[in-house]
Structure formats: structure tokens, C-alpha cells
């Protein structure tokens, strides 16, 4: 049989009959199979919104507004059913009967939702929003926590939601620290009882968190739980102490 060679010959090799027989007898080389790689879906802008999302709604009652704000944060579940499953914030809505601040609330929710869909580390939003101060002054919410502005409280709501889904983790105190705080709190309350008995009016000034009425604002956790003990300011909520 004649074979026409249309390409330029760059080299040649003479194959003998015994070489063909050896090649036929040798077992075929088995190519190593590549291990299957799981396709991990990451958050990105082009990720399409599913028909249904899961989320949570938080209520904000501020003395700055006549009506409450309702903050809804919806999450998307990435890599559902695998070990890489993760909930990530996808969109946020804020609703209220108060229409005075409608335009900046709509702008804020659209920007936050865009950042959520961008992907990456979105936890930085919490610190940025909690650092916003109202020039008219802040307020104390239930539990004695100071909020410098309504934007800061929205940031606190986002922080709580991220903690719920596992994006932010609180630094856990050791058992020794918890025991020390409990001991200091008991000693402070005992010393206060020795000085004077609380009048009904004084009892009403204590906050819902149960911290002593004379406690001041802690610079670390923004809670009215800072008391003077042994000549040092100590927070009964987070354990912060100016003495180290």
C-alpha cells in the first residue's frame, strides 16, 4: 500500500519485526488518574440570586425615630450539602413607617447589598458602620449599650447576624476570667450594700442587664458596666481593665 507523505520529514527510525513483537507483548502503560477536585463555589458579583433565600429580621427601636426600623438580612447558601457549605449575606432591606430618612436608607441598603455580592471579607463593614457618630449625640439601648448613631446600631445588627451565621466569632473568655469577673462583681455589690441601702428610686435606675447602678460606660464594649474596684476601673461585662 502506498502512503503519500504531505508533511516535511524531520526524522525517521527503522522498526524491525522483533521490535513490533516486543511492543505488542508489553502491557499498555496505565496513565495515572487525577483525583477529582470539588468545585467550590465562591461569592462573586455574577452569582445569580436563587428564587428563595433564608434570612433574619431585627427590630431597632431608637429614641431618634418615632417608629421602629426593621432590618432584614437574607443569606445565600454556598456549596449546599458539602463540607464547604457556608451561609453568606446576600442582600439587606430596611423598612419603617418613618419616611424622613427614606433616601439615605435606600442608598445604604443598596450599597451594602452590592458589597455583600462582591464577595471576599465583608466583616469590615461592621467596624466602619459602628464608628459613625451622630453630631446630635448618641443614646443608650436596652442593656446599657451605648449607640453613637442609628447607623452604628444598624452596624451592630449586621454584626449580630454575622455572628449567628459564623462569619464573626467572639473572643471567648477563659473560665478563670469568668470566675474573676463574677468574684469582682460579687465583691462590688457587697461593698455597695454595706455603704448604703438602695432606695426604690435608685433601684429603678439599674439597667435590664443587671449591672450596678453606679457603673459607667466601658470604652471597649460600650456597655454601662465599668466599676471602680481596688483602685482600678474594671468592666463587669467584657472583663476590660485599665490596669491590664
TrEMBL record:
Start and end residues of each TSCPD domain: 49-162
Catalyzed reactions per annotation: a 2'-deoxyribonucleoside 5'-diphosphate + [thioredoxin]-disulfide + H2O = a ribonucleoside 5'-diphosphate + [thioredoxin]-dithiol
GO terms under biological process: DNA biosynthetic process
Keyword Nucleotide-binding: yes
Record Pfam families: TSCPD
Top-level taxon: Bacteria
GO MF, one annotated term: ribonucleoside-diphosphate reductase activity, thioredoxin disulfide as acceptor
Keyword annotations: DNA synthesis, Nucleotide-binding
EC number in record: 1.17.4.1
Family: Belongs to the ribonucleoside diphosphate reductase class-2 family.
Protein name, per record: ribonucleoside-diphosphate reductase
Biological source species: Dyella psychrodurans
Phylogenetic lineage: Bacteria, Pseudomonadati, Pseudomonadota, Gammaproteobacteria, Lysobacterales
Amino acid at each position: 500500500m502506498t502512503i503519500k507523505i504531505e508533511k516535511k520529514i524531520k526524522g525517521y527510525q527503522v522498526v524491525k519485526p522483533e521490535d513490533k513483537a516486543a511492543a505488542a507483548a508489553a502491557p499498555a502503560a496505565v496513565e495515572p488518574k487525577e483525583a477529582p477536585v470539588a468545585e467550590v463555589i465562591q461569592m462573586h458579583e455574577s452569582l445569580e440570586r436563587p428564587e428563595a433565600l433564608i434570612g433574619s429580621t431585627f427590630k431597632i427601636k431608637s429614641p431618634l425615630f418615632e417608629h421602629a426600623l426593621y432590618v432584614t438580612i437574607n443569606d445565600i447558601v454556598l456549596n449546599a450539602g458539602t463540607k464547604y457549605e457556608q451561609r453568606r449575606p446576600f442582600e439587606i432591606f430596611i423598612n419603617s413607617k418613618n419616611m424622613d430618612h427614606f433616601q439615605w436608607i435606600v442608598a445604604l441598603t443598596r450599597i451594602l447589598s452590592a458589597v455583600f455580592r462582591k464577595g471576599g471579607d465583608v466583616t469590615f463593614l461592621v467596624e466602619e458602620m459602628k464608628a459613625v457618630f451622630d453630631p446630635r449625640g448618641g443614646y443608650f439601648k436596652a442593656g446599657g449599650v451605648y449607640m453613637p448613631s442609628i447607623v452604628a446600631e444598624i452596624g451592630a445588627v449586621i454584626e449580630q447576624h454575622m455572628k449567628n451565621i459564623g462569619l464573626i466569632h467572639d473572643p471567648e473568655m477563659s473560665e478563670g476570667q469568668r470566675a474573676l469577673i463574677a468574684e469582682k462583681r460579687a465583691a462590688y455589690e457587697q461593698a455597695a450594700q454595706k455603704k448604703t441601702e438602695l432606695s426604690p428610686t435608685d433601684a429603678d435606675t439599674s439597667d435590664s442587664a443587671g449591672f450596678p447602678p453606679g457603673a459607667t460606660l466601658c470604652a471597649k464594649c460600650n456597655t454601662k458596666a465599668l466599676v471602680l474596684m481596688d483602685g482600678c476601673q474594671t468592666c463587669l461585662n467584657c472583663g476590660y481593665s485599665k490596669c491590664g
